[in-house]
Amino acid sequence: MTRNTDIVDAVVVGGGPAGATAAADLARAGHSVVLLDKAGRIKPCGGAIPPRAIEEFGIPDSQLVARIDTARIVSPKNRHVDIPIEGGFVGMVDRAHFDEWLRERAAANGAERVTGSFDRVERGADGVATVHYRPPGASRRDETEQVRARLVVGADGARSAVARQEVPGSEAMRSVFAYHEIVRPPEREAAAAADYDGARCDVIYRGELSPDFYGWVFPHGDTVSVGLGTAVKGLNLREATGVLREAAGLADTETVRCEGAPIPLQVLPRWDNGRDVVLAGDAAGVVAPSSGEGIFYAMTGGRLAAEAAEAFFATGDAKALRRARRKFMRTHGQVFWILGVMQRYWYTSDSRRERFVSICRDKDVQQLTFDAYMNKELVRARPLAHVRIFFKNIAHLTGVVSA
Q1: Rounded to the nearest 10 degrees, how much is the dihedral formed by the CA atoms of 396, 263, 369, 224?
Q2: pLDDT (tens digit, 9 = 90+) per residue, 298-322?
Q3: What are the strands, taking DSSP E only, across 104-162?
Q4: What order do you get walking across the sheet with 175-183 strand by strand?
Q5: Which of 89, 235, 268, 295 registers the highest number of CB atoms within 10 A of its CB?
Q6: Tens digit of pLDDT for each residue in 36-58?
């Protein structure tokens, strides 16, 4: 697709939850949108989405491959805490199907889907952005096709090529590398022997497997996501994942696919180039520290990018693009800061991880954690519980309470 004269309102680069949401919202509002995405791209992801995401973004039951009612936190000494999700559930999606459904929804709203890999943005004498991309099979720069647009939404992942080219400071983004294997669940006898539960998500803290993050076993109905994340170079992620599979009774089950990708660890200080580009999703760094949760925040970022884009189209003022980050941080910045402090302290050694899991046995901690997860905001309705948690944390930090 080469358009020499036509100018669309927006090119959205990246068709994951952020990009597909931005494209759907803009197309639904009547804007001409091109959604550019690579062929066959599947991001490694546990696939957890809270009820708020299901409600806000109209995710149908058909996309939920499992409903989780318990989270198990496992310590380095293999002690565990089972945390029931009272009065709710965590929905699980398979990104291979979920992302495609989101892209199809964007197309149904009027976005034009294009398959290809982003190459660069250039601007001619009229100042309009021209997005160059390589269609499937093309490898040379002179084989690119192009589309002109008033605005470019960069939603192309943690190491976003759009961000690196257009948004100052984006190249300094810190990230962990996530790897997982989608496998078949164990047979009933093996599941019982390994204590595998298809309605429970397991989060495993073991420094030898992930020195700075965690491993997971997340059921997906007729498959299971088993993986981990780390920023430590040289760690053999396949071997570590093999250990997780063995512990979960999944060592001999069929492997459906394997995937790896970087996951951002910090929200970028800037999401726009002050002209005609705004970022969303992993490209903007909106993955929750400590938990690594990203789908809800990616979709939220995509929606905010679309809102900022509409203000930009209406006014012609590039300052409107700043609204996306400003609104996100006003709503979620405090939660991200607290989760970041937790990760920087509790994930630094196995002794601290052991204490962290011990804290998770506390009913106040469990209730407030899941209230915050379900509602995506700090819960202020129980001030006495917050006070109790504060003093319990002090006791654990100082060693007054043993792990």
Answers
A1: -110
A2: 999 999 999 999 999 999 999 999 9
A3: 112-115, 117-123, 129-134, 145-154
A4: 80-84, 70-74, 200-204, 215-219, 224-230, 175-183, 255-264
A5: 295
A6: 999 877 888 889 998 889 999 99
